[in-house]
Every structure is written in C-alpha cells, then in structure tokens.
Amino acid sequence: MKVKIFTECGKDIGLGHISRCTSLYDEAESRGLNVEFVIYGEKKNISLLNNKNVTYVNWFDKNILYKSISKSDYVIVDSYKADLEVYETISQISKRALYIDDFGRLNYPEGIIVNPSLDASHIDYSQSQNSILLSGPEYVILRQPFKGVKRDYIEKNIRNALIVMGGTDTRNLLSSITTEICPKYPDINFKLIVGATSNDVKGIFDNDVNNVKIYNNLTGDEVKQIMLGTDFAITAAGQTIYELIATCTPFIPIQVIDNQKFTVSALLNNNIVHKVLNWESDNLFEQIIEEIEFLKEEEYRISLSNKYSNLIDGKGVQRIMDELMG
C-alpha cells in the first residue's frame, strides 16, 4: 500500500500545488505510510521537496499512469493541466483517488473532491455525482509550521512589512513593487520572499532600495517567523493567504491569475480584507498605497487579526487524509 501524489510545477504554474501537497505528504508519512511525489514539470531545486521521495515524469501519458499506479495505491491529484481522461484512468486503476480542485475545473470521476478554500458554495459540483465533496475552512491545507500558531500582539505603528508573490511571481510584480512602493515608506523595513522559480530573480536582486531585505529558499518555519514579525503583507491571492491568516497577519491581496477569482470572492464575502487588487489595474501602485494607509490604523489591524484567529483550525490535512484512507 502506497500514497502517490500526482502534481505539477513550473514557471507558468507556480508552487501552490507543491506547497499544499507537501502537507499531505508529511501527514501520510507521519502515519507510517509509504509516500511518493510524481511531478510533471522541469526538475528544480525546490526546498519544499527536500528529503521527499520525488519522481519527475509526464504522468499525463496514460501508459505511464498504468506503470506508476497499482490497485493497492491511494492517489492524490492536484493539477490545473491534467484532462478528464487522466482522472478517469487514475480513478479506475487506483484503490482510491482524491482530487484537489479550486474552481470546479472538471466533472470529476468517482473519488473524493477537496476544495480547500474558505468558501466553495458558489461552485457547482453537482455533475460529479459519484464523488464525495469536502470543502470549506475545515479542509484548508496548512503546512505543519503554521498549525496552532499564535500572534502575541499587534504593533502600534507599522515597522515591518512582507512582500510575497508566490513561488513564481507570475506577473513579475516583486521588482516593480519594490521600486514603486518601498522608497515611499523609508521607516518601514520590507522583507521580500523570492520563490524558487521566480521569473525575474536577477531584476529583484539588482534593485538597490535601502529598506528592503530579500529572502529565498526558506523553510516553512522561517516563513512563519517572518510573518509573525511582520505588521502586514502584500501578497498574491494564492496559497500564501492561508498562512497569513494562520499567523493573523493583515494582508493586501492581489489577484494575479484568473483562477484566484473564487478565493477573491471568499475574502470579500467574509470581510477578511478591505479590498482585493488586480495586477492588471492601471493604478495598482496607487491602490497599494491606499491600502497601506488603511493598515496604518492600529485598531483596523487588530480587528483583522481577530477575524483571522478563528477561521482556520489547522486540522484540514488530518481530515483529508482520514477521508482518503477511510
């Protein structure tokens, strides 16, 4: 019996799949199960995959699936690229299959669908009739360091800020935000986390802005400590927002890809943020400045932090694995 996690990574995909799948990998391993990552994409030095059993292969090929999966295998799939035929094959040849989905991408075959977001009520899964659906904040996937985290206090004045645009910085925003925003706030120390597959690494490191410190290849614990030492964050509206919520860190989200629209809706509907920005906006930098000005108010940051504190209990990974192995 083995747990196999099929996913993908690359410059046009990001590391969100890898990040949340490592949490499922660690949970399965903690239960004494044999676990393997099967990844479609270019092999990269990704710290998230350190000490993991990883195979890089084009698993979209049915012939490779038949060679990779046995009838005793439990399979997890997290993909924006695999087509329905691939999912049907996995469902047929595995012991049990679980599909992570963010926006109702397919009518999934028999198995378990997990939508690990704050609110999936607006997504129609009715056509996936033979599947079990798990959704809502109780199934949000967090990495181990972000479970049970407590923020001690909220600073009266903003002194430290975080800028993070996911594993790839798909829209090359880190460099431009650094240039356009950070010099306007010389009293704030900005910390930039650069993803392992960021597109414009050279441009980011070449920026000569005095109040900016750049970090890369960080562990989950290191990211957590930076967040806890941060008064607010500017972030892409992807997987990182759940870690910011877990650390009760107020944030300014920017939608950078279309499939984040449901995450954006959940943030707004639950009054978790004041506003969600869009990377295509003509006045993006002016909007970021407006949001920073909102966040300067201590009481506002305290109210946001209090809202975050009870949203995610950190047990989503255990619940998902219980269902898969049940």
TrEMBL record:
Q: What is this protein called?
A: UDP-2,4-diacetamido-2,4, 6-trideoxy-beta-L-altropyranose hydrolase
Looking at the record's lineage, which domain of life comes first? Bacteria
Taxonomic lineage per UniProt? Bacteria, Bacillati, Bacillota, Tissierellia, Tissierellales
